[in-house]
Design brief:
This protein is an alpha/beta fold and 520 residues long. Helix content is 37%, strand content 20%. It contains 18 helices and 14 strands. It has a 7-stranded antiparallel beta sheet with strand order 2-3-4-1-5-7-6. β8, α13 and β9 form a beta-alpha-beta unit. It is elongated, with a radius of gyration of 32 Å. The C terminus is likely disordered.
Amino acid sequence: MFLTIGTTGTPERPATDLGFLLHKHPDRSQAFSTSYGTAHVLYPEADAERCTAALLLEVDAVALVRRGKGKGRGGAPDAALAQYVNDRPYAASSLLAVALSGVFSSAMRGVCAAKPELPARPRPLRVEIPALPARGGPGLVHALFEPLGWRVSAEPVALDTRFPQWGDSRYVSLTLESQTLTVAETLRHLYVLLPVLDDAKHYWVSSDEVDKLLRAGEGWLPDHPEQKLITSRFLSRRWSLTRQATERLELVRLAEADDSEVEDIDNAVEDTDDAVEAEAETQERPTPLAELRREALVTALTRAGAARVLDLGCGQGQLVQALLKNPRFTEIVGVDVSMRALTIAARRLKLDRMGERQASRVQLLQGSLAYTDTRLKGYDAAVLSEVIEHLDLPRLPALEYAVFGSARPRTVLVTTPNVEYNVRWQSLPAGHARHGDHRFEWTRQEFRAWAAAVAERHGYDVEFLPVGPDDPEVGPPTQMAVFERKATGAKNESARGENAGNRDENNEKHEKSEKEAKAA
């Protein structure tokens, strides 16, 4: 297997800087032992204007078969009957990708002790691979590399130049050129995409491959148009690993879109009021506020006649679990941005052991409430229980539009802490919020003003209900707004129907009059 990486330079920025970046001296050829042969690094040319590094991998075909325990490259699809004599050791594959990561590990991480400023600096690069398996043809090669900033040439390799009628093989001769990428980015692209194009690996793919994919794909894979194909092929189409990687990539994408850290988004695991709901221990322990809240929500949903319900910001799935106990709720969808919370919810609900009929009623989705989502349209009701206070105030309009303007369920239930009641919590220091992640806590007047404005903007009626003991001075611990969409749409449709009917009737009368006039 053979690959070259070349660059050009100037006297001020010589091309031989490539040697520093790759940690391999241009004046020497070096050999490195791998599990399946020997990797040689040499420089066909090296001066201030042009420098090219070549990686030549000699594959030990016998070791390859023996390490694969007779299964043909660890289960690769096309070596079962031709273990010792086949063309695969000569074409770029996961063998070359592994050699790249081993021989150029420091370069792939973007580390250069001799010249620390070099790794982050883009430079003109040219990569050539004479024989590259491309299951999907040249079109797929372009689709994978061009979104990353490469100018791609993928020339099909003929099966036999003496017999052109035989057509092309599944191999291409690949040339990549770029002026805007770094050497580290180049190596990470190749490490992931070579085995993706080959659609096979020479070793057993285990869970640690997900971490390898995410490390090498950092900064480019979450937004790649072919992310699903890349993830599936890199993980040898193992469904469980692919799902795990996809979920983690989605979390990274949401964090980047929100300009925050993944850890800050994936934090919805704690029950919101555990620290403050426990009053001084008494002989008869009162019902926890979280339980009172769920009971109030179920009652309001039942009163609204809802059957298909969204739990937006479902956390660990306590409300979803409560709704599943009531057969009137035929479809329950829990949505949360935190995959950790959704994983806990799945365990709480025992989704893996749930019967088919029960499982058909529930679904857990990852998503951000700050963005519109077509999956959330068409439901009877949506619940935002202890959610809005976890958003920065400037983000509330986005949530408002996503729920009330885009999804537009018939009923929306919103609960949030009543900050006036905080003085009744003996365990809560003065001036502190009930939860460390609360960005604000509203008074009853502030909450009602916000809810009334939302209802007015989006065509809903709203009423307010207390949750928990309603203190005559400071109100209830939790305040709930019940939004009901106004039925103006139905009236307008009816009016449009009546107008259309009248027009049709008038047209018929006019045509009849014309016919009578002609007959006379």
